[in-house]
Amino acid sequence: MNAVIRFANLSLLLLFPVAWFTPLLRAGLDLPLFGLSEISVISGLQELWRTDVFLALLVTFFALFAPYLKTIGLALIHFGLMRRRVLPVLHVLGKLAMADIFLIALYIVLVKGVGLARIEVAWGLYLFSGCILASITIGLLSEKRAL
């Protein structure tokens, strides 16, 4: 079981960056001549950097760095390179991570929609969702193993 948790966590080190660049949504005007633009986590952050640098800095930390640092911390613990007493800090870091909040916001946008806009789910949303759920599960399993 420990090997499975280790492998799953190490997989997240590769899958999170892939999920950040994959299209989460295709959005655009619901008119025949207009195509749909693909939106990823990174493209959304790039747009935010153009409009509000301070907010972009916060969202970048909480949506990208916090979950990735948590994953790295768990990997270090799994391989005995960091003490288990750091788990509460990683737990707090996981709570600060806004990746799951970002995901919920995307679902709200999908459900509500906008008058003339059309939104389609892309495969990256499923990958991003899976990474988030896997991270939460690995964190919980790691904490239980520590008891």
Structural features, described:
With 147 residues, the chain is mostly helical. It has one domain (2-146). The chain has helices at 2-21, 41-51, 53-78, 87-96, 99-112, 123-146; strands at residues 25-29, 37-39, 117-121. Strands 2-1-3 form a 3-stranded antiparallel β-sheet. α3 packs antiparallel against α4 (87-96), α3 (53-78) crosses α6 (123-146) and α4 packs antiparallel against α6 (123-146). The longest helix has 26 residues, at 53-78. The chain starts with a helix and ends with a helix.
Low-confidence stretches: none
Counting DSSP E segments of at least 2 residues, the number of strands comes to 3
Helix content: over 70%
Q: Which series of helices and strands comes N to C? A: HEEHHHHEH
How much of the sequence lies in strands comes to 5-15%
Mean pLDDT over all positions: 83
How does the helix and strand content classify structurally? mainly alpha
Number of domains: 1
Give a quick account of the main beta sheet: strands, pairing sense, barrel closure. 3 strands, antiparallel
Radius of gyration: 17 Å
Question: Please, what is the oligomeric state?
Answer: single chain
Draw up the topology in text.
Elements: H1 2-21, E1 25-29, E2 37-39, H2 41-51, H3 53-78, H4 87-96, H5 99-112, E3 117-121, H6 123-146
Antiparallel strand pairs: 1-2, 1-3
Helix pairs in contact: 1-3, 1-6, 2-3, 3-4, 3-6, 4-6
